[in-house]
Fold this protein.
Amino acid sequence: MRLEPIANPSALRTLMPPALAISATVVIASLLAMAAGANPFAVLGEILRGAAGSQFALLETLNRATPLIFTGLAVAVAFRAKLWNIGAEAQLYAGALVTVVLGTGALGWSSAALIPTLIIASLLAGALLLLVPALLKVRLGVDEVVTTLLLNFIFLLFVSMLLEGPLKDPMGMGWPKSPRLIDEARLPRIIDGLRLHWGFGIALIAAVLVWVIQARTTLGYEMRAVGLSRDAAKFAGIPVGLVLIKTALLSGGLAALAGFSEVAGLKGALTLDLSPGFGYTGIIVAMLALLNPLGVIAAALFVAGIFVGADSMSRALDVPTYLADIMLATALLLMVLAILLTRFRVVRE
Amino acid sequence: MDIIDILLSASFWTAAIRIASPLIFAVLGELICERAGVLNLGIEGIMVAGAFAGWMAVYSGTDLWTGVAVAFAVGMLFGLVHSTLTVPFGLSQHVVGLGVTLLATSLTYFAYRLFLPEVTSPPKIEAFQPLEIPFLSDIPIIGPALFNQTPLTYLAFISVGVVAYILYRTPLGLALRAAGENPAAVAAQGLSVTAIRMGAVIAGSGLMAVGGAFLTMSAFDSFFFEMVNGRGWICIALVVFGAWRPGKALLGAILFAAFDALQIRVQQTEVGADIPYQIFLMMPYILSILALIVMSRRAEVPAALMVPFNKGER
């Protein structure tokens, strides 16, 4: 069998594979729900209701989508230049870490000065953390997949060490937890009395900015060229190493904003369970968005909806929450296949 | 206790070989995939699935070796998923690998919750027991380390020999290595690159799953969440460290395991007690990165690693 590119795919050809991928995901989830002894229609209904069935559910989904927009953007930016950043989880914690270091009283500034400072400090921390693997890749050819992955483990242990040592909250009843942010460092709510905070707004702004960078600037063009073919980019005189480093700085910084936004907007303090794998889920978000920054918003909402919905479905119907992860993994694998099939046809020999 | 005392104790080396065993299986599995030209990032999840499948089979009443076979088969199944997407379709090996890891891990956890909904502490099985080899196990220090282990450890060492023999002494091995170096030449010989690569990924994934099964069926007697805990990712680093050769990969796995066994013991010494335990836990990962940096200077990467092959185009 062989793949043959399709010159002008028809509308049907473009829409069918993704639709089939989503349907197949739903079928698999239904089968697993039945294995768990639940009615699949009830399961899907509960997921939908739990994700968007009420104002509370919807805002919860938006809240959950916020860190995923940041990590999804981080991954999308890097993957587009074929820089495989699997370390968004560590970069997220780097952002959270500087946020609690600077935001718990070290700087007694007003919100107007403190919050921008925290954002910039987070950006720098995340950028710095990805700079190391990027330099190792550009200078020594060390594969960044492994180094960024291993850095996740190392950095989380580092955070754990700080939370049990210098950063431990003396009022924390012995739990490894940082002191709380001062009020000036907290992101305000978007609507009074509802949990949705301005981190979501910042995430939307970030997505638009990243889109502008990619679509309208020289750097964006260079990143795309490097991603399409490193050799061709080099031949065209693009400084490939430098572009990869810039991409890494942008990607690491974006992931770190997820940590800033979770601490300053939602949690108010740093704990080791700040992220239930937002860094890794960002990879799924980015792929579902076809690496498009604006698509990341939609993909993050979809993924967040599945997680939030599955949580309440699990409580209501006693089906393990891992169903959400299975659905996302299946959707991811089938989606990449579906995208391929819109552009190529399989020819038997 | 001094570090020298630790290094000269038989219990230390016994532990090192035990810690190395699951890594040996998984490194061999990854090595086979990469030698054929496919990076398999599904390794972490496939190990989780293997750990659960083998243990669950024994818990439901099969004997231990059948459990190992079940783990191998489950690994092959995920290898089939991975290779179908990455070889004939040529999809991104990074994305598919991470997807397979997530799929295997979440399916495993889902199945665990399904089969054992109400348990607070997971049930135990009768795991593999150490099999003492007469006379050889009486040699000081290395005797107990090498010849008083469970049968799965012996199988791990045998696998290294078998894989090395197949890779370097058989036409199959030649074709497999060529698929990772110069697939066009393989196709010119009238062989199917697709079949060779898919076969390599499927067999390699089976070995990874047995590596996971070692954890539940030999090292421990039960299944825990997070029990694989990054061992798969470490194996990817070990393949690079071993320069894609089974013998060197074995050496790397043992060195790495020795270091791991050492850090556990140093933590219990007077010096170690003053250092935060996280520093010791970080060491294996830092060591892996350092190994990658050192080895990158003389890379012998299979030339077609991560390059999809499609006859007639690209």
Notes: Residues 8 and 205 of chain B are 36 Å apart (CA to CA). The first helix of chain B runs from residue 3 to 7.
